[in-house]
Amino acid sequence: MPDVEEKVPLKDPGNAESGPCKPETSGRTPDDRSSPKDHPSRLIDKVNDVSQLSEKIGMNRDFHTEEKVLPPSSLEGKVKETMHNAFWDHLKEQLLATPPDFSCALELLKEIKEILLSLLLPRQNRLRSEIEEALDVNLLGRAAEQGALNVPHVSKYILNTMTLLCAPVRDEAVQKLETISDPVRLLRGIFQVLGLMKMDMVNYTIQSLQPQLQEHNIQCERARFQELLNKQPSLLDHTTRWLTQAATDLATPPPPCPDTPDSSSATCLPAGEAAISPEPLSPKMVLSQGFLNLLLWDGEDEAFPETLRTDRARLQELEAQLHRLTVLASVLLVANSFSGSVLFGSPQFVDKLKRTTKVLLEEFGSRPEEEAMLTVSEQVTQEIHQSLKNMGLAPLSSDNTASLIGQLQNIAKKENCVRSVIDQRIHLFLKCCLILGVQRSLLDLPGGLTLIEAELAELGQKFANLTQHNQQVFGPYYTEILKTLIPPAQVLETEMESL
After folding, report:
1. H or E segment at 245?
2. Residues 19-45: pLDDT tens digits?
3. Which Pfam families does the record cross-reference, listed alphabetically (predicted)?
4. With contact defined as beta carbons under 8 Å apart, do 485 and 243 qualify?
5. Cα-only R_g, the chain
């Protein structure tokens, strides 16, 4: 089964013979209507029951569905492949029989007809009539009874119709089907491509509805939270303490960031921008600091801000991703200091080293970090040695090799100097993303982060999307809390209202 491509642009919906399909919905929408108790945690549980699919679509502008591809080596994958092969082998036996048995073929053509009709817009009446006539089940059945069902001829019509309805990215796949003469292989290929076309249409429809779904989610989440707040006036206590702590953190001068040999700059602001200053406090800065604090949350679950309970799992995922990026950047920085500019001037070497390290870092959740870093240090050292040898360069001395392994292993310690610097700089980058935007923050990355620019962009966009959606939902509540934390100033009124 071919892979499903993401974010597929459809042909112009204005074309009378092409356009987005009637979307298929997947997943269920849980909506627990049980009466909550007075305890705040029980009240919050009701907020957590917001439609997960609708929320994902509303929050993520790049949301899309994709085909579930089972690993061929998995039991489920093997069972599915065996069943599919058995069905198509059975169809082949029927068509080769004397006289041919078209019972399975007719069922397939009936299903193909239903799929094609589901891909039409309401206004495509002429094409609808053509499909109804060309794939009339009764007429096809009578032809089959007489042994005159021309499967290749019918398949040719189906391919022509698919060409009209498919996204441009599927044109090549449909054209390849036209070269298949075996009727069984052709029908099997038609079903595979039709499955991809349905996915394309669903994703296009989701993308078209995203702005409306986002606004709908914002209003619904806010209304549900307000309903709970009316029943439990203390529901914002933890949120208030969270923002208060963020304001306190901003008022406290940050510790100096030690320099590393690669760079003396620790700012992620674009050239010409002033460094972010904790004075004077502003709502945006307090909220940004608060969101950053959540990535380092070490308090009790019950004390987590009420307005972010539904985002807790996503924040934990981002925290894990941030942790892996910190270690990855630290490994690359240490490796660079030993191997020099020759190796790290090769994009192929850097990409290979990143891929290797990423795979090994996935083990952090299943084994002790010190043990995982031992494997990382050995593998990275081996990659450097092999690359130096391939380039005809002098290998690392035994002392340098031992020092490299030792420094890589020390990255497992949170107090490690390199790791601490990288961690501070990634947090500063994320703060810039919230205040300046992701693209502006990428213009001048702090030293040591340029090799993970793509990964940082992904992390920063996810973090920015999450916080932006949360502010849109709970902005009115944050505004009232921040008015008590920030001294009144006319210059802040506009920003207050923007929340």
Report:
1. helix 237-251
2. 333 333 333 333 443 344 444 444 444
3. Tcp11 (PF05794)
4. yes
5. 29
